[in-house]
Amino acid sequence: MSQLPKHVAIIMDGNGRWAKQHKIATALGHRKGVEALREIIRYSSDTGIGVLSLYAFSTENWKRSREEVDALMGLILDFFKSEIEELHQKGVRIRILGDVEGLPEKQMRTVRSAEDTTRNNIGLQLNIALNYGGQAEIIRAVKSLSNKAMRGEIQLEDIDEQAFQKELYTHDQPMVDLLIRTSGEMRISNFLLYQCAYAEMLFPQVLWPDYTVEMYRQDLQKFGKRERRFGGREG
Questions:
Q1: Is 210 one of the catalytic residues?
Q2: Domain residue limits at 101
Q3: What is the CATH number of the domain that holds 72?
Q4: Whose CA is closest to 223, among 54, 7, 5, 2?
């Protein structure tokens, strides 16, 4: 692969439908999805992807059943407990995107600890979106810039794309090059709205628990064959 994306974003969709197909509890579908996730993270790290952003839990997911939400919150704890040592050893730096303060206390402490543990790592930057919404992130950035302007720290004419990007969770990272959403659904569901402005997008039909490293490799190859013009004309 001669042309790797610098920043890959993945919407891991289809855990619930996978569980329904296999006639098991939804919580077990999410757990199976975590198994697929481990391999994708490892491959991204080993291949040289710079940034991998994962949509783990959106602000809208609180609307799901109490049983499913509790299962997802439990998986957060299990994931970091089982994976943090390997991720740290591989030089992965973890960053949480979203309103961490809105998570339950135990989950909030766990993810903050993971960020602190890996803060100085220089390998794969692993963004995990928890209690995240793209619209909320944009509003957060606007409020921050407005407050700075009211305090006289910046002038209105200083507010440009660069200033705005500095207020995002991904402020020091490249924009998304490739967005992958499994399960065949063709929407981005409020994920990294600003960062995906010129992202190439792929929508494999497979449900997330069945998404393999080989499928991921093929999707990276598809990205490498795309001609990206960023609004310009074909060369």
A1: no
A2: 7-133+176-223
A3: 3.40.1180.10
A4: 5
Percent of the chain topping pLDDT 70: 96
Tokens representing 44 are 């991204």
Residue 13 among the catalytic residues: yes
Q: Is the overall model pTM greater than 0.70, yes or no?
A: yes
Q: 166: which 2 tokens?
A: 């500095």
Asked if residue 166 is part of any domain, the answer here is: no
- Sequence-distant contacts of 21-26: CB under 8 A, at least 24 apart: 21/207, 26/67, 26/68, 26/71
203 located within any domain: yes
Please give the tally of structural domains in the chain.
1
Question: Is position 124 within any domain?
Answer: yes
Q: Which of 61, 99, 190, 210 is catalytic?
A: 61
The whole-angstrom separation of Cα 144 and Cα 167 is: 7
Query: For 25-43, what is the mean pLDDT?
Result: 95
- In-domain check, residue 91: yes
